[in-house]
Design brief:
This protein has 221 residues and is of the alpha+beta class. It folds into two domains: 2-82, Beta Barrel (OB fold (Dihydrolipoamide Acetyltransferase, E2P)); 101-218, no CATH class. The chain has helices at 44-47, 96-116, 125-140, 153-161, 175-184, 189-196, 207-218, and strands at 2-12, 16-18, 23-30, 39-41, 55-65, 68-78, 81-82. The chain has a five-stranded mixed barrel with strand order 1-3-4-6-5. Helix 2 (96-116) packs across helix 3 (125-140) and helix 2 (96-116) packs antiparallel against helix 5 (175-184). The longest helix has 21 residues, at 96-116. It is elongated. Residues 87-93, 141-159 and 161-169 have low confidence and may be disordered.
């Protein structure tokens, strides 16, 4: 059971990957704390809210193991609102421009994955990335109405990749489509690895089942 506490952060350690699953972990020291590293979190969505000199309001789960006491941060609140909500996640401390730049880089990588999978031509990578970004903004209702896109055979094929249900009836047909769904719902790669108990996507055999597990863990419809 968690307890809400106010913590003044005096030192933040580097992010480390721990365990066989290489789960990212961020440890930090608070004012008046005698031992370092006893406060930590495994939730990447909370990392940016943990900064030296900041005073945060956080939900803490305390666990005693022999001589050691662990304090795990499971939620942080800013102005009374949770930084990370179930099923959605929230980015903290970045401007809209920085968030869009990050999204563009991730989307470009996904478009390259589609080309590697022979789903699109190499020359279609830029316009496929632009198409996906427009679709993502409209889905999140954060962009102005998109201008009509002149379609050709290449863009039509790319647009079909992002339809809700592919013609085959299978929700997720390849890794690129799994990544695009994760991008749509702002789910990080390491978070997916943790949910699926894997070290890499190459371990997956049934992508539909994998996406179903991720949706259930994140509380998605």
């Amino acid at each position: 059971m968690s307890e809400r506490k106010s913590l003044t952060i005096t030192q933040v350690e580097e992010i480390k990957k721990v365990g066989d699953k290489q789960i990212p972990k961020l440890s930090f020291t608070i004012k008046g704390q005698e031992e370092k590293h006893s406060y930590f979190t495994f939730r990447p969505s909370l990392f940016e809210a943990i900064k030296e000199g900041q005073t945060i309001s956080a939900d803490i789960e305390t666990e005693i193991r022999g001589e050691y006491t662990n304090h795990k941060v499971v939620q942080i609140y800013v102005d009374g609102q949770p930084v990370s909500s179930k099923g959605t996640g929230r980015s903290y401390g970045k401007s809209p421009e920085e968030l869009e730049q990050t999204a563009r880089l991730m989307i470009l990588a996904y478009a390259k994955d589609l080309a590697v999978a022979d789903k699109i031509l190499l020359k279609d990578i830029p316009k496929t990335a632009d198409l996906f970004l427009t679709w993502l903004k409209v889905s999140d209702k954060v962009a102005s109405p998109a201008q009509p896109v002149q379609k050709d055979s290449g863009t039509q094929e790319s647009e079909d990749l992002f339809s809700e249900t592919p013609p085959t009836g299978k929700k997720v047909q390849n890794i690129a489509e799994l990544k695009s769904l994760m991008m749509k719902h702002k789910i990080g790669t390491h978070e997916a690895y943790e949910i699926l108990s894997i070290k890499g996507f190459l371990e997956l055999t049934d992508l539909d089942e994998a996406w179903a597990k991720i949706k259930e863990a994140k509380g998605l419809e």
